[in-house]
Amino acid sequence: MPIPKGREEEFCQAWDSASHQEKLKLAEKYGVSYDTARHWRSDAKIPTQELEPNMQMTIEDILGHRPAINLDFVSFDLETSNLNADFSVILSAAIKPFGQDTIVFRADSYPAWQQGRRRNDKDIVQDITDELRKHAVVITHYGSDGRFDLPFLYAKMVKHGIPALPTMFGIDSWKIARAKFKISSRRLANLGHFFDIGEKSGVDPNLWMEAVYDGSTEALDKIVAHNIVDVEVLEKLACLSFPYIKSIPRL
User: Is residue 66 predicted with pLDDT exceeding 70?
Assistant: First the structure.
Protein backbone atom coordinates (compact mmCIF):
# COMPACT_ATOMS: atom_id res chain seq x y z
CA MET A 1 0.00 0.00 0.00
CA PRO A 2 1.74 3.24 -1.15
CA ILE A 3 1.42 6.75 0.21
CA PRO A 4 -1.88 8.20 -1.04
CA LYS A 5 -1.27 9.90 -4.38
CA GLY A 6 -0.67 13.62 -4.15
CA ARG A 7 0.10 13.50 -0.42
CA GLU A 8 3.71 12.23 -0.55
CA GLU A 9 5.36 15.57 0.20
CA GLU A 10 2.82 16.43 2.90
CA PHE A 11 3.38 13.07 4.61
CA CYS A 12 7.19 13.16 4.40
CA GLN A 13 7.44 16.70 5.75
CA ALA A 14 5.16 15.81 8.68
CA TRP A 15 7.13 12.61 9.37
CA ASP A 16 10.53 14.35 9.29
CA SER A 17 9.51 16.95 11.85
CA ALA A 18 7.58 14.60 14.17
CA SER A 19 8.63 13.08 17.48
CA HIS A 20 8.18 9.34 17.95
CA GLN A 21 4.76 9.75 19.58
CA GLU A 22 3.70 12.14 16.81
CA LYS A 23 4.81 9.57 14.21
CA LEU A 24 2.58 6.97 15.87
CA LYS A 25 -0.35 9.38 15.60
CA LEU A 26 0.57 10.23 12.00
CA ALA A 27 0.53 6.55 11.05
CA GLU A 28 -2.88 6.21 12.72
CA LYS A 29 -4.14 9.25 10.82
CA TYR A 30 -3.19 7.59 7.52
CA GLY A 31 -4.74 4.29 8.63
CA VAL A 32 -1.52 2.25 8.59
CA SER A 33 0.85 0.69 11.11
CA TYR A 34 3.94 2.50 12.38
CA ASP A 35 6.19 0.08 10.44
CA THR A 36 4.29 0.71 7.21
CA ALA A 37 4.55 4.48 7.68
CA ARG A 38 8.27 4.15 8.39
CA HIS A 39 8.72 2.22 5.13
CA TRP A 40 6.72 4.86 3.29
CA ARG A 41 9.23 7.48 4.39
CA SER A 42 12.31 5.41 3.62
CA ASP A 43 11.00 4.50 0.14
CA ALA A 44 9.90 8.03 -0.77
CA LYS A 45 11.99 9.99 -3.29
CA ILE A 46 11.54 13.25 -1.35
CA PRO A 47 14.88 14.29 0.26
CA THR A 48 15.25 13.50 3.94
CA GLN A 49 15.31 16.50 6.23
CA GLU A 50 18.76 16.90 7.79
CA LEU A 51 18.83 16.48 11.55
CA GLU A 52 20.79 18.71 13.87
CA PRO A 53 24.08 17.05 14.88
CA ASN A 54 23.29 17.13 18.60
CA MET A 55 19.86 15.49 18.27
CA GLN A 56 19.56 12.31 20.37
CA MET A 57 16.84 9.74 20.90
CA THR A 58 15.26 10.19 24.31
CA ILE A 59 14.42 7.45 26.80
CA GLU A 60 10.74 8.05 26.00
CA ASP A 61 11.45 7.48 22.29
CA ILE A 62 13.30 4.25 23.04
CA LEU A 63 10.59 2.92 25.32
CA GLY A 64 7.90 4.03 22.88
CA HIS A 65 9.35 1.92 20.07
CA ARG A 66 7.96 -1.55 19.59
CA PRO A 67 9.90 -4.24 17.72
CA ALA A 68 8.33 -5.79 14.62
CA ILE A 69 8.20 -9.16 16.40
CA ASN A 70 7.27 -9.92 19.98
CA LEU A 71 10.59 -10.18 21.78
CA ASP A 72 8.81 -10.31 25.15
CA PHE A 73 11.41 -8.77 27.47
CA VAL A 74 10.71 -8.55 31.19
CA SER A 75 12.76 -6.81 33.87
CA PHE A 76 12.98 -8.82 37.08
CA ASP A 77 14.10 -7.92 40.60
CA LEU A 78 13.77 -9.62 44.01
CA GLU A 79 13.77 -8.19 47.51
CA THR A 80 14.68 -10.74 50.18
CA SER A 81 15.50 -10.81 53.87
CA ASN A 82 19.07 -12.05 53.24
CA LEU A 83 21.32 -12.70 50.25
CA ASN A 84 21.32 -16.50 50.65
CA ALA A 85 18.22 -18.61 50.05
CA ASP A 86 18.81 -20.95 53.00
CA PHE A 87 18.91 -18.00 55.43
CA SER A 88 16.21 -15.92 53.83
CA VAL A 89 12.65 -15.47 52.57
CA ILE A 90 11.33 -13.52 49.60
CA LEU A 91 9.70 -10.25 50.64
CA SER A 92 8.65 -9.03 47.21
CA ALA A 93 9.28 -9.48 43.50
CA ALA A 94 8.73 -7.09 40.61
CA ILE A 95 8.32 -8.28 37.02
CA LYS A 96 7.92 -5.54 34.40
CA PRO A 97 7.00 -6.58 30.86
CA PHE A 98 8.63 -4.20 28.38
CA GLY A 99 6.72 -0.92 28.22
CA GLN A 100 3.92 -2.18 30.50
CA ASP A 101 2.91 -1.83 34.15
CA THR A 102 4.93 -3.66 36.78
CA ILE A 103 3.52 -6.90 38.18
CA VAL A 104 4.21 -7.07 41.92
CA PHE A 105 4.20 -10.02 44.31
CA ARG A 106 4.47 -9.25 48.02
CA ALA A 107 4.83 -11.70 50.89
CA ASP A 108 2.16 -10.19 53.13
CA SER A 109 -0.57 -10.97 50.59
CA TYR A 110 -0.19 -14.72 51.21
CA PRO A 111 -1.92 -16.76 53.98
CA ALA A 112 1.34 -18.12 55.44
CA TRP A 113 2.58 -14.59 56.17
CA GLN A 114 -0.74 -13.52 57.66
CA GLN A 115 -0.82 -16.63 59.86
CA GLY A 116 2.62 -15.92 61.32
CA ARG A 117 4.43 -18.54 59.21
CA ARG A 118 6.58 -15.99 57.41
CA ARG A 119 9.40 -18.44 56.70
CA ASN A 120 7.12 -20.37 54.33
CA ASP A 121 7.51 -18.57 51.00
CA LYS A 122 6.40 -21.41 48.74
CA ASP A 123 3.28 -19.68 47.41
CA ILE A 124 5.03 -16.47 46.40
CA VAL A 125 7.83 -18.47 44.76
CA GLN A 126 5.20 -20.43 42.82
CA ASP A 127 3.47 -17.26 41.60
CA ILE A 128 6.76 -15.61 40.59
CA THR A 129 7.82 -18.62 38.55
CA ASP A 130 4.37 -18.96 37.00
CA GLU A 131 4.65 -15.39 35.71
CA LEU A 132 8.24 -15.77 34.49
CA ARG A 133 7.23 -18.87 32.51
CA LYS A 134 5.06 -16.66 30.30
CA HIS A 135 8.04 -14.71 28.96
CA ALA A 136 11.04 -15.38 26.76
CA VAL A 137 13.79 -12.99 27.88
CA VAL A 138 14.49 -11.98 31.49
CA ILE A 139 16.53 -8.87 32.29
CA THR A 140 18.27 -8.61 35.66
CA HIS A 141 21.06 -6.55 37.19
CA TYR A 142 23.67 -8.73 38.92
CA GLY A 143 20.98 -11.39 38.74
CA SER A 144 22.29 -14.33 36.71
CA ASP A 145 25.25 -16.75 36.45
CA GLY A 146 25.62 -17.38 40.17
CA ARG A 147 25.00 -13.81 41.27
CA PHE A 148 21.67 -13.05 42.96
CA ASP A 149 18.08 -12.86 41.72
CA LEU A 150 17.78 -15.93 39.50
CA PRO A 151 20.11 -18.25 41.48
CA PHE A 152 18.22 -17.29 44.65
CA LEU A 153 14.91 -18.08 42.93
CA TYR A 154 16.25 -21.38 41.56
CA ALA A 155 17.28 -22.47 45.05
CA LYS A 156 13.82 -21.68 46.40
CA MET A 157 12.19 -23.54 43.52
CA VAL A 158 14.18 -26.69 44.28
CA LYS A 159 13.47 -26.31 48.01
CA HIS A 160 9.72 -26.14 47.38
CA GLY A 161 9.59 -28.80 44.66
CA ILE A 162 8.67 -26.36 41.89
CA PRO A 163 9.62 -27.53 38.36
CA ALA A 164 12.47 -25.72 36.60
CA LEU A 165 11.72 -22.88 34.21
CA PRO A 166 11.53 -23.70 30.49
CA THR A 167 14.29 -22.70 28.07
CA MET A 168 14.58 -18.94 28.45
CA PHE A 169 17.13 -16.27 27.68
CA GLY A 170 18.72 -13.73 29.99
CA ILE A 171 20.35 -10.31 29.87
CA ASP A 172 22.36 -9.10 32.87
CA SER A 173 22.86 -5.34 32.58
CA TRP A 174 25.60 -5.50 35.25
CA LYS A 175 27.69 -7.76 32.99
CA ILE A 176 27.21 -5.38 30.05
CA ALA A 177 28.16 -2.38 32.19
CA ARG A 178 31.27 -4.16 33.48
CA ALA A 179 32.40 -4.98 29.94
CA LYS A 180 31.39 -1.78 28.14
CA PHE A 181 31.08 1.18 30.56
CA LYS A 182 34.19 2.49 32.33
CA ILE A 183 32.62 4.17 35.36
CA SER A 184 33.33 4.09 39.10
CA SER A 185 30.53 1.68 40.05
CA ARG A 186 28.28 -0.67 38.08
CA ARG A 187 25.63 -0.72 40.78
CA LEU A 188 22.16 0.02 39.45
CA ALA A 189 21.84 3.19 41.54
CA ASN A 190 25.06 4.66 40.12
CA LEU A 191 24.20 3.72 36.54
CA GLY A 192 20.72 5.20 36.88
CA HIS A 193 22.14 8.44 38.22
CA PHE A 194 24.98 8.68 35.67
CA PHE A 195 22.76 7.99 32.66
CA ASP A 196 19.90 10.19 33.99
CA ILE A 197 17.35 7.38 33.77
CA GLY A 198 16.11 7.34 37.36
CA GLU A 199 17.13 7.65 40.97
CA LYS A 200 16.73 4.64 43.23
CA SER A 201 16.79 5.19 46.97
CA GLY A 202 19.32 3.70 49.34
CA VAL A 203 18.54 0.66 51.45
CA ASP A 204 17.46 1.21 55.04
CA PRO A 205 18.24 -2.04 56.93
CA ASN A 206 15.55 -1.22 59.50
CA LEU A 207 12.82 -1.63 56.87
CA TRP A 208 13.90 -5.17 56.14
CA MET A 209 14.14 -5.98 59.86
CA GLU A 210 10.67 -4.54 60.53
CA ALA A 211 9.15 -6.43 57.62
CA VAL A 212 10.69 -9.81 58.47
CA TYR A 213 10.56 -9.82 62.27
CA ASP A 214 7.59 -7.56 62.97
CA GLY A 215 5.51 -8.32 59.87
CA SER A 216 5.17 -4.57 59.28
CA THR A 217 2.92 -3.72 56.33
CA GLU A 218 4.23 -0.16 56.28
CA ALA A 219 7.81 -1.37 56.01
CA LEU A 220 6.90 -3.77 53.23
CA ASP A 221 5.10 -0.95 51.39
CA LYS A 222 8.41 0.93 51.22
CA ILE A 223 10.32 -2.18 50.18
CA VAL A 224 7.83 -2.81 47.36
CA ALA A 225 8.13 0.83 46.22
CA HIS A 226 11.92 0.37 46.16
CA ASN A 227 11.43 -2.87 44.18
CA ILE A 228 9.27 -1.15 41.56
CA VAL A 229 11.76 1.69 41.05
CA ASP A 230 14.49 -0.91 40.53
CA VAL A 231 12.73 -2.59 37.59
CA GLU A 232 11.76 0.76 36.06
CA VAL A 233 15.39 1.92 36.08
CA LEU A 234 16.51 -1.53 34.95
CA GLU A 235 14.21 -1.44 31.91
CA LYS A 236 15.63 1.91 30.80
CA LEU A 237 19.20 0.73 31.41
CA ALA A 238 18.50 -2.35 29.29
CA CYS A 239 17.26 -0.12 26.45
CA LEU A 240 20.52 1.82 26.55
CA SER A 241 22.53 -1.42 26.76
CA PHE A 242 20.92 -3.24 23.80
CA PRO A 243 23.36 -1.81 21.18
CA TYR A 244 26.26 -3.35 23.14
CA ILE A 245 24.78 -6.86 23.33
CA LYS A 246 26.43 -9.33 20.93
CA SER A 247 24.19 -12.25 21.85
CA ILE A 248 21.55 -13.23 24.40
CA PRO A 249 22.57 -16.39 26.28
CA ARG A 250 20.26 -19.05 27.63
CA LEU A 251 19.56 -18.97 31.33
Answer: no
Are the CB atoms for 76 and 138 separated by under 8 Å?
Answer: yes
State the DSSP string of the chain: -PPPTT-HHHHHHHHHH--HHHHHHHHHHTTS-HHHHHHHHHH--SPPPPPPTT----HHHHHH---SS---EEEEEEEESSSSGGG--EEEEEEEETTSPPEEEEGGGSHHHHTT-TT--HHHHHHHHHHHTT-SEEEESS-STTSSHHHHHHHHHHHTTPPPP-S-EEEEHHHHHHHH---S--SHHHHHHHTTS--PPPP-HHHHHHHHHH--HHHHHHHHHHHHHHHHHHHHHHHHHGGG-S---B-
Q: Can you tell me the distance from the alpha carbon of 18 to that of 135, in angstroms, rounded to the nearest whole number?
A: 33
* AA identity, residue 218: E
In this predicted model, what pLDDT tens digit does every residue of 172-185 receive, in sequence order?
Answer: 999 999 999 999 99
Mean pLDDT of 227-250: 92
This prediction has a pTM of: 0.72
Q: Both ends of the chain: CA-CA distance in Å?
A: 42
Residue pair 37/26 in contact (Cβ under 8 Å)? The answer is yes
Please state the φ and ψ torsions of residue 21, each to the nearest 5 degrees: -65, -40
User: For 73-244, CATH number?
Assistant: 3.30.420.10
List the chain domain ranges. Answer: 8-53, 73-244
Share above pLDDT 90 across residues of the chain, in percent, rounded to a whole number: 61
